[in-house]
Design goal:
alpha/beta, Rossmann fold, six-stranded mixed sheet, three-stranded antiparallel sheet, 8 helices, binds adenosine-5'-diphosphate, binds magnesium ion
Length: 248
């Protein structure tokens, strides 16, 4: 499959994200200053320069961060105030899989979150095995997490994040730094998941696979729309820019 080609994507139920006059300052740094944006997310990509606010935007959507003022809602609920609901309904995949993996074996990694959401041990175990089966790795249950390859660890993080069957999956540069076949394969698995997704990414080919892009620039939405249109505008502005060492 060539790069940039759209994968056959599963149908998803869109998630409604709403930011109303959201401000966030971190250590004297104003990240968002009255950001208001509303979007129905199926497969949305977040594009923007380093420091534009993509990660903090995702953290606000997940409820990991509370805004200083204003409100964030996901399908009508406030994810920072309803932590339990948020951890069940919103999955998060980080760039570094080591940050999300805590247990010695794959099965423990998968069942932990399920049990935390109230599943009994047996049910969680059965569900974990079903997930492994669905992802085509039924023999991974007793595999030691530290023995997995980097790409396999990323896949495990994806399985862990989607195990509680969230309605929204957030990915922050989730598959950055992997070799091309690994990255492409993971994106293909991602496309098959019937879950609404927002993915921050620097890779233009991966961004092009979304159905919509939001361009963040210095904590504001610079533009949003069809991937072709946004990427053309983004490239036109970024390419040929030579930054001074102070601006890197
Ligand atoms: N923990 C933090 N403390 C202080 N400033 C931060 C912190 N995290 C992010 N920032 C600042 O917030 C802004 C947005 O950062 P971030 O969301 O990480 O951008 P992106 O993911 O688009 O690269 C940047 O100016 C960054 O320096
Ligand atoms: Mg980031």
């Amino acid at each position: 499959m060539s790069r940039g080609e759209t994968f056959l994507a599963a149908e998803v139920t869109p998630a409604r994200i709403r930011f109303e006059d959201v401000s966030l300052t971190l250590e004297d740094r104003v990240v968002f200053d009255g950001l208001s944006v509303e979007m129905d997310v199926s497969r949305t990509g977040l594009v923007g320069r380093n420091g534009a606010g993509k990660s903090q935007f995702l953290r606000l959507v997940s409820g990991l961060v509370t805004p200083d003022s204003g409100t964030v809602t996901v399908n009508g609920f406030d994810p920072a105030k309803n932590r339990k609901r948020a951890t069940r309904e919103i999955g998060f995949v980080f760039q570094n899989p080591e940050h999300g993996l805590l247990f010695p074996t794959v099965i423990e990694e998968l069942t932990f979150g399920l049990k935390a959401h109230g599943m009994g041990k047996r049910e969680a175990d059965a569900r974990a095995r079903e997930i492994l089966q669905n992802f085509g790795v039924p023999g991974w249950d007793e595999r030691l997490v530290h023995s997995l390859s980097q790409g396999q660890k990323h896949l495990l993080c994806l399985m862990v994040a989607t195990a509680p069957e969230p309605g929204l999956l957030l990915l922050d540069e989730a598959f950055a730094g992997l070799d091309l076949p690994t990255e492409t394969s993971l994106h293909r698995m991602l496309a098959r998941l019937p879950v609404a997704q927002i993915a921050a990414n620097h890779d233009l080919a991966s961004l092009a696979r979304n159905d919509r892009l939001v361009w963040l620039d210095a904590g504001a939405v610079r533009a949003e729309g069809a991937p072709d249109e946004i990427l053309t505008a983004y490239r036109a502005e970024m390419e040929g820019r030579i930054l001074s060492p102070d601006a890197l």
